Amino acid sequence: MTPTRRDIFKTVIAAVPASWTAFSTALAAATPGDEAYWRMVQRQFPLEDRLIYLNAANICPASRPVMDRHIEYLRDFHANPSFQNRDKYVEMRESLRGKAARMLRVDADEIAVTRNTSEGSNIVVKGIDLKPGDEVIITDHNHPSNNDSWKVRAKRDGFIVKSVPTPIPARGADELIGGIERTITARTRVIAITHLTSTTGILYPAREIAALAKRRGIWMHLDGAQTFGGLDVDLSAIGCDSYSTSAHKWLMGPLEAGLLYVRASRIPEVWPSIVTAGWTENLKGARKLEVLGQRDDPRVVALEASLDFINLIGMANVEARMRALATRAKTGLAAISNVELKTNMQPELCGGVVKFKLRNMATKRAYDVLWERHRMATSATPSGDSEGIRFSPHIYNTFEQIDRAVGAVKELAG
Ligand SMILES: Cc1ncc(COP(=O)(O)O)c(C=O)c1O
């Protein structure tokens, strides 16, 4: 049946909730880059007034426009779950794929829509052929999804996993590259590293490590949980073979939505983890890796909305603002005598994750005081080489909040 004008109008309204028009109008009227502009961006987020939320590396809030689009489509889906109404989600997923590919500078056929970084990385971990005697290089600061996942599979299939220690802070890119390079042997099949570590915020020189891997025909997997949405990630420049990320971190999107990039020439080497209705040999490119049974289509729409939200501001502007906030925090913290800063200052070695340790107070105690006395939501590693408190600010934070957080630490440092 041909859609009526009323159907089309309903679709348009669903696609553009009022918060989108309000936000884009306000953006157009504001001066990019000034504090009033960023205050207006901050107002798009439904965070509690008193809360100083500094935990983007764990979960970012979604903005109102993103939530509104999610809710609109959730309503649409449940108001009419017919095949006919749900047909449009196929096209919408392709639209998301195209936008994600453009942002990451790769081809749409190289993008799979997953549920999170863990799933994306595990698709690679489980999907590549590896045999006894083969070697996989990881680092000791990889997240379990790109660390224990390799070890579990190695136990089953008899290959070797070599873990390279991560220096804190890194003396320079050469030290990070050298650690990996020295571990490569003729048997190395995979190098699996983290683009930006969640532990101490080191930005790995992914491009140089990918070049090392490429020269030797080694698969290079990059965990991008802490980069896409915070940093302007150019995968064609980096040249890795795969990259996984989540929507609920720096992209400020929905929970349980993510993306996996696999280089076109490598896709035939990956066995799909899940084969169910909808899977065929003929699925094009990375689509053969994302089949899951019935999808939560409105959530996938919300992921596209999170890219739209960032694109309205501009990825480069988002990165510059996020970096300015993180730099303000690091500069303030580094000036406190009882604070040991574990994150690098050089822009090429850091991103939005800031880690520090108070020399005069147990980390868990400092974490509790920041929450109980100041309502500052941070994250803490209670022991080990990355012990400390983590601040991870994003565009919904202000310089004033950063200064208050640094001031609270100063008070604890005595
Ligand atoms: C570096 C890194 N990789 C992977 C993950 C896992 O992300 P998710 O739980 O969204 O799969 C995290 C989560 O904090 C992370 O920091």
Question: What are the SSEs and their pairings?
Answer:
Elements: H1 5-15, H2 18-29, H3 35-42, E1 52-53, H4 64-79, H5 83-86, H6 88-104, E2 111-114, H7 117-127, E3 135-139, H8 148-157, E4 160-164, H9 173-181, E5 188-194, H10 206-215, E6 219-223, H11 235-238, E7 242-246, E8 258-262, H12 297-313, H13 315-334, E9 339-341, E10 354-358, H14 363-374, E11 376-377, E12 379-381, E13 388-391, H15 399-413
Parallel strand pairs: 1-11, 3-4, 3-5, 5-6, 6-7
Antiparallel strand pairs: 2-8, 7-8, 9-10, 10-13, 12-13
Helix pairs in contact: 2-4, 4-12, 6-12, 13-15
The chain binds pyridoxal-5'-phosphate.
CATH H-tier superfamily of the largest domain:
Type I PLP-dependent aspartate aminotransferase-like (Major domain)
Any idea of the CATH class of the largest domain?
Alpha Beta
What ligands are attached or bound here?
pyridoxal-5'-phosphate
Task: Quote the beta fraction.
Answer: 5-15%
Which structural category do the helix and sheet elements fall into?
Answer: alpha/beta
Q: End-to-end span in angstroms?
A: 72 Å
Low-confidence stretches: 8-14
Quickly describe the structure:
This protein is α/β, with parallel strands linked by helices. Helix content is 43%, strand content 13%. The chain contains 15 helices and 13 strands.
What do you see in this structure?
This protein is α/β, with parallel strands linked by helices. The protein folds into two domains: 91-310, Type I PLP-dependent aspartate aminotransferase-like (Major domain) (Aspartate Aminotransferase, domain 2); 316-413, Aspartate Aminotransferase, domain 1 (Alpha-Beta Complex). Helix content is 43%, strand content 13%. It has 15 helices and 13 strands. It has helices spanning 5-15, 18-29, 35-42, 64-79, 83-86, 88-104, 117-127, 148-157, 173-181, 206-215, 235-238, 297-313, 315-334, 363-374, 399-413; strands at residues 52-53, 111-114, 135-139, 160-164, 188-194, 219-223, 242-246, 258-262, 339-341, 354-358, 376-377, 379-381, 388-391. The strands form three sheets. Strands 2-8-7-6-5-3-4 form a seven-stranded mixed beta sheet, sandwiched between helices. Strands 9-10-13-12 form a four-stranded antiparallel beta sheet, with helices on one face. Helix 11 (235-238) links the parallel strand 6 (219-223) and strand 7 (242-246). Helix 13 (315-334) runs parallel beside helix 15 (399-413). The longest helix has 20 residues, at 315-334. It starts with a helix and ends with a helix. Residues 8-14 have low confidence and may be disordered. Bound molecules: pyridoxal-5'-phosphate (PLP). Pyridoxal-5'-phosphate (PLP) binds next to helix 7.
